[in-house]
Amino acid sequence: MAVIRFSELESAFERTTVDSDRDAASPSPAAAPVVLIHGEELLVKSALKRLTDILVPADTRSVSYEPLDGTAGNLHEAVEKACTYPLLGGRKVVALLDARLFESKKVPVQLLRKTKDAVESKRLQQAAVHLLDFMALTGVDLDDLTGSDRQAHLPQEPELMEDSRWLDEVLAFCRQTGPTEAPASDTAGLLEKTIERGIPEGNRLILTTEAVDRRKKLYELIKDKGLVIDCSVPKGERKADKKAQETVLQEMKNRVLKKHDKTMQPGVFELLYEMTGFEPRTFAGNLEKLITYTGERRDITRRDVEAVLERTKQDPIFAFTNAVTEKSTAEALFYLASLLHDPQQPIRPEQIVVAVLNQVRKLLRIKEFVSTPDGSAWYAACPFGQFKTAVLPAILAHDRQLSDRIKQWREALTAAVDSGSGKARGGSKPVGKAGSDLSIAPQPKNPYPVYQLFRKSESFSPEELRQAVEHLAQADRQIKSGAENKQLILENLVWSICGGKDAIDEDRLHHRSGQ
Fold this sequence. Notes:
Helicase, Ruva Protein, domain 3, alpha/beta, two-stranded parallel ribbon, Rossmann fold, six-stranded parallel beta sheet, 3 domains, 23 helices, 56% helix
């Protein structure tokens, strides 16, 4: 059949006919015998509700809709129910929720983390479910986990196993309540055979999950015989990723406002988005708060947002350093205030200075590279495609040469120290990977951030960057000397790097600090 993006779902539902031909070129979601919904949790739940509302009338839902938790054991039950004709006729819809059918090597560790979190929040029943899934996936049993050599059966993750009392607690709960054996089986293989054989006409099997592996046979089979609803949203910081995230929240806003017959003044969405970031659940909750607050009034204003909501978005420090390297003074000052006054995890002023220094050092390295014959392929308007083919190889060769040179220097220094002391105690060895912190492209498989840094470097002259280092050193001295108003010192630093001649002079800084 097909793959439908979440943004295409409404138009797909408009042509929905529950009993339409399953082989139609443009099928409706309700016509597919098997539907896989994957991606962002809130969008998955929204798509599932929309689909079940169409498939199952409210007055028959108690007998014709059977949701099951997506554990390994429940898959057998889900398949059995989906392949059984309803006793009283009509349609049967079976949903396997949060199904773990596309497991990867990382999943066992993730399941143990979920187990630990559930124990710490006193949700032992849920912790037991996650632990049994871990056991089913890895093939270990309860005796393996309670024996003296249990470390051999567990991932070597210090954050999980340094203190394993949480594991003892959930194991004791499993022994008291059962079951104590994980239903290990080839769950994906069972489902593949079921889909190939076919589900009885009129029945539907719906699967929901967070992540999928599109390379697996099961995914291709569902796409071919049924329907995939893709609710995934890129989580990166690239411009395209941010645009996709904003589009999802815009669509969510439009649906909620239409449902409640509300409107939103220009600029209010942007303010709301800035306050929450891409957190669909928080964003939806804030929308509901605003709708309740405005009551009978139809229009939602900026004043409503400021009166009802608190800023929940945590601005990562790279958003601040991005603004600095883009010479965006206002944006950098905004993020600076947010970082310093984050009630949950405020960042120390010294950390902010170091973060900016790291970016300035990278820009200086780029300037040095561009000034050499190796960097001659770079120019200000260089497109990304040309950067990857012509500039990136030269960068990687330059990084390797630097790394080799530093390694030689360290080896020579180590030899000199050893010979001067007669015999090195325990042997001298360099700290860290040679040159790794000076590499222009430490992660060559992801060249786009490097390309962006090259573009930003065009906004600075070498002299400006050298002055920025001096400003950073001055700010560091002022902060460590015990100055009272550290925010003003950092604000002056931002102005010095981004604003040039508009920077606050030192006398004015001290005057304001004393106020």
